[in-house]
Fold each of these.
Amino acid sequence: MGASDSKLVFKKGIFRLSEERNIRADDPYWTSFWELPESPEDVFSLFSPADIRRTRDSALENLETLLLAVTSRLFSLRHHPSFPEQDIAPERDLLNCVRVLTRVLPYIYERESLQAWEERFFWSVRRKRSRSAASAGEVLFDEADTADQNGDDGSDRAAPQDGFEEAKPLAEELIDTLIDLLFFSGFTVARQPPGKPRVSYTIWQSGVGCNTTVPTTKESESNRCELLRLLLTLSSSSLYRPAGALPAHGVRSLTYICTCPDKQVVLSVLCSLLNTTVKYNPASWRVPYNNLVFKDPKQILVTYSLHFLLVVLLYPIPPDPVTGSISKNYYRHFLGRLHRPTDFQFIVDGMTRILNQPLQATTSYIPGTQSSVKFAPEIIMLFWEITQCNKRFRSFIIDTQRAHDFVILILFYALECKNDSTRQGVVRMCAFLLQTMSVEKNFGINLNKMFDTQDTLPPAIRIQNFRGTYADFLIQSIYSLITASQSRLTAIYPALLAVINNIAAYVEGLSARTSSRLIQLFSSMSSPSFLLANDSNHNLLCSLLEALNATIEHQYSIGPENPQLVYTIVRNRKRFESLRNLTLDNGREEIERRMQRRKDSGATGDEPAELGSRRSSVDSLRSPTTSHHHGQQHARPSQALSDVAEDDAFAIGGDDDEDESDDDEPRPTPSQSSPCENPSRASPAMSVEDAVPTQVRGMSEKARGKMPAGAGPFSFSRQNSTTSLGSGSAHGGSSDNNLAGSGRLDGLGGGGSGTGGLGGSGHGFEPTVQWFESWLPELPLHTILAVMQQISALIPRDELAVDYPSPDTLQRIQDVHLAGIEPSTIRVHSFEWSALALGWYESMLWSFIFSSEMQVAKGTVVGVWNSTAIKLFRVQEAAAQGPSLTSPRGAVDAVGSNIVSRIGQINLRGNNAAGVALGSAAGGGAAGGSANHDAGNATRNPPATNNPAPPSS
């Protein structure tokens, strides 16, 4: 449809859709929807949001017939023996059917009142005309068993009962057809020889499950993009629900996709998406210019492949509403069954190549090349998913010491995003990814390797004059995340401290600077203004003290010691003694004195070692709801699933029975709480935006060894995780309705900022003597006080007055035999997923997808979810932008836009003066804008009409 008069014909037909009621199913009019458009831009520009909403709201029966017509045409083309023959069964028709469905479905999902109609129309068993009864030129018509909600009994469209057969629900057949088309000969994969099946589940790229090079064409890749975009659209009803409702409510389309029992289908889709993603090379010679000047079709395919892969991997299948049973997510299951080292190496190399792009491009002379790949956060999410559900992959990463590379990469993205309020979700994800790896013993041991290439890192992550090990670099970077985040990252302080706790027993020879950073954290966390700010901050202090104890105790008996840390502790012994002697009264007096000094000096900022003042925000209401080990958030039991038998196809999974027992064991009863655990009030203001995976208190190796194989949160299992480490820590045993959170580290040591009373959080908490005495005597100070007493007697006072001790002093510390210091039981701190945390995680993924779709559609009118009423996150409008190097506007662009604009604004409806603004948010929906969410920030031009903003989650 290259000429403007053809566009005009199509536009008139779209108006007819809403102005004429009950258009017959056999009317030739319907063929215009797949015969006239020539590109996605035609469908998205001429079929405007206003047109779709008007048809939906005033002529739902026509919208229903349109959906039936295009799906029937889609099904008939898929089964046509000559498809994709241009003259007989053209692929253009099929692609236009896909585009129309992609365009229309979001506007059905956004209308909550259509949920019952959607359930009936898409998911009820149908009566379908058999192919033998349908003539070649007819529109096949599928009819649901029940009448629609508007009272239309389908009599105008009904065909004779003869020649009809019962068929699966429309949505199921549509999904099955789209999956088949992803592997269709001559359409998305290479043409098969005569006599071969036209649907050949051939993996798209070499890599996992395929060792041979697979030929492809640009046309095939473009067709894959269109199909994946529709599959994402079918899965996107989550965008129109609040985040808290996602895990329980579920998405019917995703449930059907993820529970597909056909192993060949699942593995072909899984391996195709995975290989396409990790084989992408952003460092090719084209990419720097490509990022600046034109779109890379390969990157678009990779983006859609990665997003659909993550959607199916992350999806927690809800319980069956009738039986209450939970089906297995086979995509997540088979990802967890990967076991070949060559596959792991392929995945690791690919993800490293993508994530490493901004680190390698710092010396490039090409402007813009140092920027991260657009989907780098999604690659981090994929890495986290694999480390959670595949214990073999986790071991491979750590045992081959590739964990060093990923630690640096994860810290780079965390530190790069820490000050960007729109990317806080990336930082949270990085923190929990570090915690996921840190539960492995070898992870902590391998961190003792010297980090000699720190000077080659980008400035955002480089530590000035750094000399030390990977453990030093990790701890100092965690310190930077805590102290430089301006209280935006309080939700992950327990996770960051858990990382230090998990490696504490294994790190050796900590540097002077690292030791100083740990003591600075202790100084801030032990200040009265922090401890009395709410009823849970003492848990964070307890967690840090436990880490210091483990570092001292376990490294005095094996290998090199940590004399610098011991020296720093002894040098700051007054801080520890002050904590030991702290009372509620003198704590309040100290806060008053500090506030008075600030007032007298006119100071407005915190002292250098302090972590910022307490802010009044919803985050500051976060507090634990149940007892946990040393400040860790409470656990929620997640439901694991049984494995299924499998053969050796694709060499995925080893012994069929290897993990059979992992998912059927009952959850263990929590063991006795440690002294540092104290019940806290539930937070009434908790929101999904603040939700993160919940911390589980540490459990000893001995206790872990007595647990059933695979039990406990070491599986990092959400619902349907099917692989785990061989042992795990106990659950916190808390209700699913409670979401734990740590007390904020706002005002850490800062004397408060005047919010609330003395030691109060400003939200009603008032410390009492009973509360104070419930935790202060139980702080684990014995080891540190014993070390201070014995070491201070051996070192002259003048030697403790210098920042850096002499080698002789350090040697004396190493040689001393400490009496009464025995290694405590090593406890590993893990986390589990709650319903709210899953809602946060899924909403972050969908904000990535929403933002990326706007990038893909930049400069065009194509944008699947633009101008729809998003409820999952808040969408903000962005200022209009003129021509730029990334979005040039030449004469051809101007002419094309002018033609489309004129046609779109034609008024063909008599007295109705409202024009149709092509590509704008005409009609009652929310305008597309930036996804203002933890996950990311994307922008588009503001709409041409004034539309209500979407509701915030």
Amino acid sequence: MDIQATPMNSHTIIPLVAATAYLPLLALLYVNRPWQQKHKLLFLYLIGAALWSFGDIFFRSNLFMEDKVLLGKIILCILFWAGTQLHYFMKYIYSPVETTKKIPFAYIAMILSWAIIIAFLPESVSTVNGVTPSYGFWLIPPSASLVYFLCRDLVLLSRRYRQLTDPIKRSQILYIIIGAAIIVSFTLSSFSQFGREFPLAHIGNVLNASILTYTILKHRLLDLKFVLQQGLVWIISAALFVGFYLFIFFLLHLVANYNLDSTTLALTALAAITVAGIVFMLRQTFMKLSAKFSIRETYPERQALQDFIKRRIHGIFTLSDLGKELLGLLTKVLQAQRTFLLLSESASNDFVIRFAEPKGEGSQALRIKQDSPIVTWLNKENKYLSREDLDIRPEFLGLRKNEAEASRSLGIELFFPIISRDNLIGILALGRKNSGKYSMDDINITESTINQVAMSLEKQFLQEQLREQQKELSLINRLASVMTSSLNIQDVYDAFVTGLREMVSVDFAVIALREEQEICITAVPSKNNQIWELNQRIPLKNTAIEWLIKHKKTLVEPDLSHDSMFITGKQYLEKGLRSIVYLPLLVKNEPIGCLIVASNEADAYTPKQVSLLERLASQIATSVENSRLYSRAEQRSRIDELTHLFNRRHFDETIKQEIDRHTRYGNTLSVLFLDLDNFKNYNDRLGHLEGDKLLAMLGQLIKDIMRTVDIAFRYGGDEFAVIMPHTTADDAFAVAERIRGKIYSTMARKKINITASIGLATWPEDGITRDEMVTACDSALYYAKRTGANRTCIVSKMMPTFPTETTIIGNVEKETLNTIYALAATLEARDQYTYGHSKKVSNYAVALAEALGLPSEKVAIVSAAALLHDIGKIGILDDVLRKSGKLTKEDWDLIKSHPTLSRSIVAHIPSL
């Protein structure tokens, strides 16, 4: 091997620049501790690349002339080490798992390459006209293996690039591919004759160092603090400027044999600095022109976005306007299919979609909990989060299923944190791009926009919260005033629901109270209530109140069409209700019932709204309990102690209230009066104690038969009344007939000669005022009793009305009727074979009279006369009346005389 010393120091400039270019990279890596596996692999590569160029300085200089072959071996070993580390670094980028788990074949190949280098390479080093190594055949095997690994890495990195949607990762991989391709190409060229004479490989090393530096600073290959990053950008830019400046002079020296002296360097440096300063001052103009040309499709939208950020945002005073305009502009600039702005809820601190562009179905499905890994990561890292990160990062293995599914169904690709004063106040989510994938430019625009609007967004958000709190406080105070001013639960309910509709969606609301093992519907809507009726009772088991009694907390069913916990859920759904909130009414921490609020919309109630409902429910609970206690005390004064029905006083109050209520809301009200037939005779024969027992039994019987919405009263003596809200005449007649029929069958079974006559009137057809309704009911009742009793008469369907002076049953007339019924009962009791005969005759006679169209007073006379047509039997001896054998002539004469006796008895009754 021939070695001759010829100093060629100019050939060392390029390796020097290359070695120097890696120093900033090592500094950046140093400040990025603690290191991950990627950082360690990058560090090993950077050390190898820097040492390779640094060693080549000595190899190409006039130093160590006797040891050039040894230096060549060392440099080749370092080169293969750097190439192997580059392979593992790139492999970690596209397959981090395989990098740590598989057998390190590249390291094995490197060791074998070192063995070949130590044994055979380089064959010789010539120092004539520079330091020129000669490698020979043995360079091919180790070079081929290293080139195979690196080319394979480039192919796999290209595939990974096409698969990714994360703009930053795509940019990182793209520049790593470019840098690796350059270093491989220039290194291979160094094995040519020209490449062995001149340091071409180190030009590639300089370019690769520059690309890596740009990738780290611009595309975040390493995580750097902003201030440190900006400072290092200027330092590294200056260093690269100086390096390339010297490199250009070196090329001039080689090509044109240009002489280098201090004066030339100083003047040219001054000129270069001047030109650089001018270019720096004009950079904004150049950037605008470049942007206008390269992004001409979205340039007007970008200008509009900049105008919004710098000027128009200061004239926006509501969060709604700010959110809608911001998302609208961003969607156009980024060419996104959809964008979402998620803000924190004050009640739960969860992040929910407040604004969506364009607005569509499913926007409300995404709710990111405050303890979600997404929120934790965005708050900690303060940088965007991609779909790939959610799928592969271990931090997101605990991500809730509903959050992952919702974000996937909405097509969200990127999450951006909106941070103001070190607090995460919102999340910007980007859906898929209209075409292609998001670029680094899109990321920069988005982050720049967020940084500039974050403070304004927080300000509007806080102002909106303040306005809502003031509105809620005003509502609570107003409702508190109303609730403390009334002891009527329905009045409290009406005022409560009216105020509630100002804040939340309310399509149905009801107050239900627990009464032992039942639920009593205490307050219902006056209009459009087709679910529960006032005072309706429901078994407690398997209901929401049973659940609330056990858990003492609010329960929300967001969508009844998907799931319902209680037996009442199907009934609500059939009426069109989708979401429902059950709020316990707690008094001294004990549930007395619940407030039910429902909406026709699914997911209608946010946690914030539920929190407001809970506060209002706590307010109304005390009022409801006070109303109930007052109602119980007042009810005792309105209850008849004998029958446990409401008394006459309560009837007078209730009928007036119901007429007023039906006047306001427009519906039909029916009232019936019931009077017992032959009760006086029963009372006189058996005594008042037995009469009281019978009245108590009949009061319970009426209560059991009537509907839950109906209200029963003991009107006085043996008279009863029932008020039937929202009931037509036909429906009321059906109820009255059930009551009459039940009384008749019960009394017949007990062999008690008691029946009921019922008069029925309907508001407003039969009367407008309370007095008119009572008069109408009395008229119908009088007609029923005068036309045979044990029947129901509707005043509007009576025959021509009685004269005015007889429309109300007087005491004398009533006594007369009682006498008639007593005589008829006495007659029936004497002859068991003809029991019920007089009543049947009376019914047939009335039917015929009404069919003939006789006036009502005539019908009444026919009824009474028919009932008493056999009254003369009272003069027949019992032995003759009940004789089973053949009658004698005297017996027949006595029987034939009874019609004459009947006529004489009836003639003494004035009305007949």
Amino acid sequence: MATCNSCGAELSIAVRFCSSCGTPVGSDDMATLEFATAASPHTARPVPASSPSQRPPSSSGFAISEGRFLPGRLLAGRYRIIALLGRGGMGEVYRADDLTLGQPVALKFLPEEATRDESLLERFRNEVRIARRVSHPNVCRVYDVGDVDGHTFFTMEYVDGEDLASLLRRIGRLPEDKATDIARQLCAGLAAAHAKGVLHRDLKPANIMLDGRGQVVMTDFGLAGLADQIHGADVRSGTPAYMAPEQLAGKEVTAQSDIYALGLVLYEVFTGKRAFTAETLAELVRSGTQSTPSRPSSVVKDLDPVVERVILRCLEPEPRNRPATALSVAAAMPGGDPLAAALAAGETPSPQMVAAAGENVGLKPRTALICLLALVVGLGLSVYLALRGSALEQVGLDQPPEVLRQKARELIARLGYEGRPADSSFDFDYDTDFVNYVEKNDKPHPNWDQVMTSQPPVLHFLYRQSPELMVASDFHDMLLTPGVIGMTDPATTVSGMINLKLDAHGRLLYFQAIPPEKDSDVAPAKAIDWNLLLNAAGLNPAELQSAPPQWNSLASSDARAAWTGKWPGSGRPLRVEAAAYHGRPVFFGLVGEWTDPPRMKAEDAGPGKGKGGAIIGTILAMCMIGAGTFLARVNYRRGRSDRTAAFRLAYAMFIVEMVLWLCRSHLVPGVQTFGLFVIAVSTALFVSGMTWILYLAVEPYVRRFWPHSIISWSRLVAGRLRDPLVGRDILFGVMLGTAWLLIFKVTHLVLLQQGSPPSLAQTDYLIGGREALAAWWTQLPVSVLATLEFFFVLLGLKVVLRMDWLAAIVFVGIFTLAKAYGSSHLWVLVPSEILIYTIAVIIVMRFGLVPLACAVFTVNLLGNVPFTSDFSAWYATTPVAILISVVALAGWGFYNALGDQPLWKLDPDER
């Protein structure tokens, strides 16, 4: 039952005046009904909800009448009563001065008879608990509960102004610009409540105050409740005239119910009229479920159509058809920027506010088509430039790895090792020591065409076999993927293990075999024909001179030999080392002046030498982890972080890491694979955990300083994969990554003219489909981690330097120096790196995480692909497939960026 705001008498919903005191019942003054939770859905008890706005504070602040406390009375030794502001069925509200803090406050007292009702006291305390969960400039702050002489009260913010209901009765509808401003503030306050799981349930003009500055303050959380704790008859508590249909029917009350009430309030604010007029509760229920309100434009002819659409969407009878959040309503209002409003108020926008902000359309069809065409042209130009600077094109890789593997096995058999191995693996690698030697010593500029096509070879085929299953134990990169076989992992220490290197044509470069650990054959050593090894290496024994051996292998030997000469076709100095045991070779190697003994690198460097960079890198990494962990903990404890997005990103990283393990690891049919699985899960948890920490550390500050830069990301992690803004940023990211790629390729061609070596493509793409997929998949976590690293560094600079432009300059300077340091071509690299990292800063600040991650993914992926102009080459399908994947990603972004817009307008009248 409704009650009179003045005397508390029960009112029929149809009456216009109180029968007891004659007070007018205003159009929005139908009192709040509270239903007992234990009662049946059809039984209400007339307990009006507490609300200072049932007799709202006036703008003038005069006393309505004398209450139980006279002006000047000092309560609790702290609060001096100034005036009675309002009286309702659930008590009185006074204005008072807090003498301790020197600030005005409002004191809300329960009725004297209610102090003996424990259920009412508990509901009173619950109002304070719930109201204190929400802290926002557009929500009336509640401070504490107190008691004086048996009178229970709570203190709250004093709002010196007028409630919206009084204002609308006094002046009618508000000007559209002011109404729009009020709407945005209402949405912000309601969103803050919903973000804490609090439903207002009694949103109406009488519970909305406008202070002396015109700012909106939502009041009266007497019926507010936590979304997951409202059940049964309590669902129907509220003001019937401002209830959603599902709430009136007693079905449910959700955030969408508050959105419906918001729509009713906005209807009145913009038109000065109620959306529905009803004389009875039954009529009100029918109006909400079976009819639609008059269009606001039928009341206000010049109302903005956008405003009308927003209001009518809020008033949809079905909750699922209403806007998802109050922030969605604010974002849809004309000319509004809820993010700017939140920042201006000193607030950090919530993740939901960020996701709801921005445009809901991606790109115009013409713009999207131009971007896609520019991207395709850029990719084509990048491939052309890559072919001009590719080392692989010059090497001439004619034989696939399967053929080279077979040649390796045949050679091993000819050398006397005919047993079938239990396990084997193969790979490609570059002799970077030789490339660096040529770049440094061939003056004035190396003839790279000759270097790549002659001996010594730049590209090596690596093969190893073992009489037992091989299980790698080391980590080889930052992704910590276990089980990746290398030439030294697992260590070549088991009898019968063989390591071998061939060039691209199958010529022998290196051989090592481990003889038996125990040998009962005490016969004299058999003679060995060294020519078998020299011929396998493509060397003419007649052109070599004997020399004393210098290189020792790990294998035990009873015969050693060495020769010196020239590499065939190049004239570079060559040294050949060989060793045998019982007539079979155990070691063979072609050695150049550039060849460093791998087991003596630490000895040559000396104690502590060459470790400075590693130590500094480790310290910086630990500092970043420590700082990230500290910030993540602070943000988590203070509720600043987007925990849902952080969990989803970490979960995705875990899945990516496990897929990488399946693609990269050398899996064997034994219990060892289960051990690798345990390690893979552990490292995946570590990498995903570090991603989670870094995200919790970075994201709240990005949302604070550059919220517009993560709008598309917030929508993406919310599951809106086909959002037009997400599509736009994916398209932009791939396009900007292609621009980066062009800069890299042009820079490389300039450096090539200055003597730098040709580009060495990633060899993982040459091994097989599983390894190529792993190389492609690797770029997913790398791009995410690199993006978070960029944000982390830039935000750190922003916090220290305060100014965006200064932080951007220092950011570009740091990364440019890191990339160009030690180069002999600074005049080329410095401008190139400045341009690249300037683009990165622009992406970070303007477009954000999604396009930056897509750009990093694109440039890292395409920058290392083994492109070839010979489509008959055995590896030609791999770069084509990778190009198709990039174009498909861009096409997906292009398609979604259009939204519902047709690409072509066939009707001339629509142009």
